[in-house]
Design brief:
two-stranded antiparallel ribbon; 4 strands; 14% strand
Length: 98
């Protein structure tokens, strides 16, 4: 059964589907970017682990549990925040027809 979400909250939050239902996540709580860290690339807060590396590992077939084992400083919610951040960035892209 789907859980209801106040639509006014969606401008600040992204819905991330998990195995056990739907969770509201503000990726800004877990993903940050600073020119002083990893040349300004978005990273998981408190680490030097970039969103890019998380996406690459997932695209190569690494499971979430394997990522957590490989990077013990992160949690499942950090990985979900990386996905949420990426979805937000892609949703703002404009595709120009040639």
């Amino acid at each position: 059964m789907a859980k209801c979400v106040d639509r006014s909250m969606l401008q600040y939050y992204r819905i991330v589907r998990l195995y056990d239902g739907v969770m509201i996540m503000n990726y800004k709580e877990r993903v940050t970017a600073s020119p002083d860290i990893m040349l300004g690339k978005p990273v998981i807060k408190g680490t030097r682990i970039t969103v890019e590396i998380i996406l690459r590992k997932l695209s190569e077939g690494m499971a979430v549990d394997e990522l957590i084992t490989a990077y013990p400083h992160i949690q499942k919610e950090d990985i979900m925040a990386c996905l949420s951040y990426s979805a937000e960035v892609i949703s703002r892209e404009e595709i120009l027809a040639s």
